[in-house]
Amino acid sequence: MKIAYFLQLNMPPSSGVFKKIILQAKEWSQSGEVVTLFISSKIKEYQDINIDGVNVVVAIYDGNLPSPLDGRLASINRLISEVNVFAPNIVYTRQDTFFINMLPLYIKHHVVTEVNTDDLSEIRHPSFLFMTYYKITRSIPLLLSKGAIYVSREISRKPYYARYNREYQIIANGIDLDNYPPLSINSDAKSFVFIGHHGQSWHGLDKIIKLAKSVPNRRFHVIGSNTPDNLENLPENISFHGYMTQKEYLPIFSDSVCAIASLAMHRNNMSEASPLKSREYLAFGLPIIAAYIDTDFPDGAEFILNLENVEDNIMHNIDAILAFAEHWDNKRVKRSAVDKIDSKVKEQQRLKFFRELI
């Protein structure tokens, strides 16, 4: 099977989005499929991208006019011509801004669209003109796609997605478990750890601070966020480490009894997710505290403490949180219990769906 991965990318190659794209493409290639990435971008670093077993075609644009008059349309035209020459069985793409010159791509090829966000609830743009254009045209690729893949059931059931659901699958975010050896049991592990950023309200960092104040005999580590400037009276048992590499934060993981995932998705009108940070926690063997339904574990799991997805979900759950941590003292989550989050499993599901559409 020949797969063209068609992408408009204006986040850097180091982004989590592109890392996921690379992981998907490599898994497809290793399964024997012929894969080419077609990338339209203003970021010149994409010209230097090399992926084992995957061809990459990049069309850079760098005009000074507002998008899409900055060369973006010409870049997309060039890529569509390259896709036609490649003659794929499937064109895979992520939901993005639709331009009228993309219409032949959807008419000529079997296009499958990956939907990662509830766009009408989450996408924000300072331009009223852009948002109006996006809302008018968003339905065209959804209507013309041969199939869709959603990262959550919740998104697929939104009325403004469900009306286009002819053929679709739910495939949550995954992680390459081979890259995350389970942590050994540490009898001294008592801390809580969280990876996230201040300013992303759905993470619920303010709730973690409340929790730390209420549990002074436990240590809390926040990775990826510096100490917030606008918060006073921070408890002494919480440490903000800023950005850290995996090698740098592994000792903190090793000293932790459990990890904290997002606690405030209600602020984003969401109740279901599969955040990559939660996959990393579980891959390393850390149980998680979360205030949402995990797409891969909709009925819950022993290693997930599900709190209510409401504003006041910490203070009246202190005892439950402490009991959960004590239950996991001297334990790690068994790898066999989280096999379903492995990207290899996810990508085989995706490839099976592709074959059904051809």
Question: What's the mean pLDDT score?
Answer: 94
The number of distinct structural domains comes to 2
Encode the helix/strand succession as letters: EHEEHEHEHHHEHHEEHEEHEEHEEEHH
- What is the overall silhouette? globular
Query: Level of helix content?
Result: 25-40%
Number of helices: 13
CATH class of the largest domain: Alpha Beta
Strands across the major sheet, in which order?
3-2-1-4-5-6-7
Radius of gyration, CA atoms, in whole angstroms: 22 Å
The largest sheet is: 7 strands, parallel
Please tell me the CATH architecture of the largest domain by its name. Answer: 3-Layer(aba) Sandwich
The CATH homologous superfamily of the largest domain: Glycogen Phosphorylase B
Structural class, by secondary structure, is alpha/beta
Distance between the termini: 9 Å
Strand content: 15-25%
Question: How would you classify the quaternary structure?
Answer: single chain
List keywords for this structure.
358 residues; alpha/beta; Rossmann fold; 13 helices
